Amino acid sequence: MRLWLWFLVAALPAFVLDAAEQPSQPATTDVKASAQAFIKQLADGRFADATGAFDGAVKQAMPPDKLKATWESIVADAGAFQGQTGVNEQEAGQYRVVLVECRFERASLEAKVVYTAEGRIGGLWFGPPKPVYQFGPPPYADKGAFSEKDVTVGEGEWALPGTLSLPNGKGPFPAVVLVQGSGPQDRDETVAANKPFRDLAWGLASRGVAVLRYVKRTELYAAKMAAEKPHLTVKEEVVDDAAAAVALLRKTEGIDGRRVFVLGHSLGGMLVPRIAAAAPDAAGFIVMAGATRSLSDAVEDQLDYVTSLAGDQLTDQQKAGLDKMHKEAEEARALKPEDASSNKVLLGAPASYWLDLRDYHPAEAAKAITRPMLIIQGGRDYQVTARDFDAFKQALAGRANVTFKLYPNLNHLFVAGEGKSTPAEYETPGHVDAQAVEDVAAWVAAH
Predict the structure, then answer these.
(1) How high is the mean pLDDT of the chain?
(2) Helical ranges in 279-342 per DSSP H
(3) Which helix (H) or strand (E) holds 98?
């Protein structure tokens, strides 16, 4: 059974670090040999030697004792290490990426080792081997109707690469900023075989609406954030960059600065009230599958749902993993204010993260937003459900400038399907529903 926690990504057996710097020249190191030697050091228990290959930010975030604990947790989940079964190298812009196939007693995992220009390890993942997907354009996209250009969201040490999809013509055009869900996310919000943010960008740009999407800060700067921002909150993860994206669009040529909207999906939708406070010049907001429950409750509800799908097919190992996640959700709810400065990590997030959101109630907070809102929800979504949608409807009842739309056959990614939505559904290529794209475009045009 594969657990997809889209609303809150809790990568318990996976150690994730991202390259934190922007190298200017490709490394000359034999990175394939280096990566294989690094994995052997882990398997041999030589963790101090292994950290010698890290760059500065990664070394600070993952000293030998933490690397040892991480490796031991992988072995506890996957079984004893049995050997390396393959190695491949990829180009990733100015980085070099090595994929080392590792065989454990109970599972095969892929180590993704990212090398900087200086030949140091600037990023590292352990996770299941990823299948290769083909991502075609949605049928409603007219690529002759718009162009795309690279932009930078924010500035200084946290600057983020982004893509602006700009309709052809004179303009100025209304524009939408896309804000991702939780966990590290690329600019397309790629989930297995789906790219919902690319679908939205191309679909809206084909209909006269400019769209800005960007790499999430926790995707590009994970190691740097772990080292320098150990007490993370959603302000650093989401809100600051969304506000910077609004500011960028308002001063971009060809954009109508009075008509810049924000669309938040999943966690991004949940945080729309906070983004609204940080971006007072935004013209309006679109909540796309935005949760109103607490994060810990949402995680447990997802766990219970996926467990019910598996029935009696769960292995003892999977049951133990689920029990651990339920326990961490309980611990997150039991945190005290004085825990905010601790280094405790629960469900993949520090104590400061949970405490920051403890008294945050998105539906109630949305009452303070005076600008127009569109709240949309998929009826087959098991991660953010009709219960969350109804909470927004109840809190904002009677508001003339708030529109609600429920799509009965759409899942969390707003892809159509039938029957119960399952984690495996994300492995099937699909596109954001055409009617949802039309409705968002029409709503923007009307404001």
Answers:
(1) 88
(2) 295-310, 316-333
(3) strand 95-104
Catalytic residues: 266, 381, 412
- Taking only the tens place, the pLDDT of each residue in 251-310 is 999 999 999 999 999 999 999 999 999 999 999 999 999 999 998 888 889 888 988 888
Query: By the 8 A CB rule, do 192 and 429 touch?
Result: no
In order of their start, the domains of the chain are 31-127 (3.10.450.590), 146-292+361-446 (3.40.50.1820), 296-346 (no CATH)
CA-to-CA distance for 269 and 403, rounded, in angstroms?
A: 15
Residue 408 tokens read as: 């009965």
Q: What is the 3-state secondary structure (H, E, C) of 172-241?
A: CEEEEEEECCCCCCCCCCCECCECHHHHHHHHHHCCCCEEEEECCHHHHCHHHHHHHCCCCCHHHHHHHH
Model pLDDT, residue 16: 35
Instruction: Give me the helices (H) in 251-294, please.
Output: 267-270, 272-278
401-406-411-413 Cα dihedral, nearest 10 degrees: -20
